[in-house]
Specification:
With 465 residues, the chain is mainly α. The protein contains 17 helices and two strands. This is RGS domain-containing protein.
Length: 465
């Protein structure tokens, strides 16, 4: 006999699902062919979300048959674990897509690294007028990269859907074995409950591991954001349901059923409603606002691919300068105290490592390490000075300004009547090379970078997330 409270609970489930949840599904299907829903591989997504929507009903049905081991097994294994399988497989698919795209960037037709060497500006020879070392290589191709490049089936939806069906078959085997072992028992043993909880947390931990391994991949269609959000919600809800909600003598108590219902509706909203909102508003990371070069170059794979593209165009010095400037900025942030400094530095080709540093006020503050001054001078000698081995294309006025800072003796010896260089710089600081990069970025962004975005590898990178 179904109690009145259970009838009210079931009516509430049905009312929500027949109105709000149904509207979400209809909106999701209506925008099926639009970005970013089209890129979410809806077949497996729809199956997962249907199963997630049924979890509260399975718990409700199981609670009506407390003495049935089979009912408990079906509810716990099929309707609780199967959605976790699907979400984990989606995370693994995203990771495989990322690794395969990265492998395609690293591999050439001959199977060697595509990326050129990076300039190492930290050199002890800068004081003798030597440029920074060129020889620190980007990460080489590994066996893992070769594996992902040689197995394209890892990024096909059919493979992962078959894996999803295989997980369901494995669940059925677990049900059959457990039912045979628990024959004659009124309820499932506590050991099986512990095993099921362990499997749940294992799924969530693996999801977090793959998400972390994705690093700063270009999450073009917010798939990583969606999966990460659901993983965090799953962790929090699992802890609350298992350890915070006080036990009431029944695994499927009303409080736990309502907590499970709330979790499933929130995760379903994240997976269905947010993509619809993004599709209607056109919020994807492949639009003009995310096509800007300075944003995309923050992604490691984009940076490697664009460097390789510029190498083919015989203009790689711009990205080598970008990488050297990036290393200099990061090293400065690690080495120098965050307290602002006004560092008046005078350099010459023979004594560039000697710096006269005067704080703007009398409060004791840190000083710029000589190694950073050496690094700045190495960048100047390698990229900016006239005749540098990787001379970049910047305006003559800006080049003379850098020359006035790093080689004041040469400026003083200029022919009489020559125009004095502008006083653009009088300090050595973290942002001293931003002006040069700003000019390069303006030239690259509307020419070479736009051509790069039209290549096949750029299309793969933009669709990676």
């Amino acid at each position: 006999m179904v109690s009145h409270d259970d009838q009210v609970e079931l009516a509430g489930f049905l009312a929500y699902d027949c109105t709000v949840l149904l509207a979400m599904f209809v909106a999701f299907v209506r925008h099926w062919d639009r970005t970013p829903i089209r890129e979410r591989h809806p077949t497996i997504v729809i199956v997962i979300e249907v199963l997630v929507a049924l979890i509260p009903y399975s718990d409700w049905v199981v609670s009506q048959y407390p003495g049935s081991v089979m009912a408990s097994l079906v509810g716990v294994v099929i309707f609780d674990m199967t959605p976790l399988h699907g979400t984990l497989l989606r995370t693994m698919f995203l990771y495989c897509n990322y690794r395969r795209t990265k492998a395609k960037v690293l591999l050439s037709a001959t199977g060697v690294a595509l990326c050129p060497p990076v300039v190492d500006v930290a050199t002890s020879n800068a004081g003798q007028g030597q440029p920074g070392r060129v020889g620190q290589q980007r990460p080489q191709v590994t066996r893992v990269d070769v594996f992902f490049a040689a197995h394209p089936f890892l990024v096909r939806e059919t493979f992962w859907f078959k894996a999803f069906l295989g997980c369901i078959v494995a669940d059925l085997v677990v049900i059959a074995v457990t039912y045979a072992m628990c024959s004659g028992m009124a309820t499932l043993p506590a050991s099986f409950t512990s095993f099921n909880n362990g499997a749940t947390y294992l799924h969530l931990i693996l999801m977090v591991v793959f998400i972390v391994r994705l690093g700063n991949c270009h999450d073009a269609f917010h798939i990583k954001f969606e999966i990460t959000t659901n993983a965090v919600l799953g962790f929090v809800a699992a802890i609350v349901i298992d350890y915070v909600i006080p036990p009431a003598g029944d695994v499927h108590s009303t409080t736990k059923r309502l907590a499970t219902w709330l979790l499933t509706k929130v995760t379903t909203s994240v997976s269905l409603l947010l993509p619809v909102c993004w599709a209607r508003r056109g919020v994807t990371r492949v639009g003009p606002q995310y096509g800007r070069m300075d944003r995309l170059l923050d992604v490691d794979v984009v940076r490697m691919a664009f460097t390789e593209y510029l190498q083919k165009e015989f203009a790689v010095e711009s990205m080598l300068f970008y990488e050297a400037r990036r290393q200099f900025t990061r090293k400065w942030s690690r080495a120098v105290d965050r307290t602002p400094l006004s560092v008046m530095t005078t350099l010459s080709e023979q004594s560039h490592s000697s710096a006269s540093m005067a704080p703007e006020w009398a409060v004791p503050v840190g000083s710029v390490p000589g190694e950073l001054v050496d690094d700045a001078y190495a960048i100047y000698k390698t990229f900016i000075k006239v005749g540098a081995p990787f001379e970049i294309n910047i305006s003559s006025g800006l080049r003379r300004a850098y020359e006035a800072l790093f080689e004041p003796d040469r400026v003083e010896q200029s022919p009489a009547g020559a125009q004095a260089p502008p006083a653009e710089f009088d300090v050595v600081d973290k942002a001293m090379f931003d002006r040069a990069w700003g000019e390069l970025r303006h030239m690259l962004e509307y020419a070479a970078f736009q051509r790069f975005l039209e290549t096949d590898i750029a299309a793969d990178i933009l669709k990676m997330g």
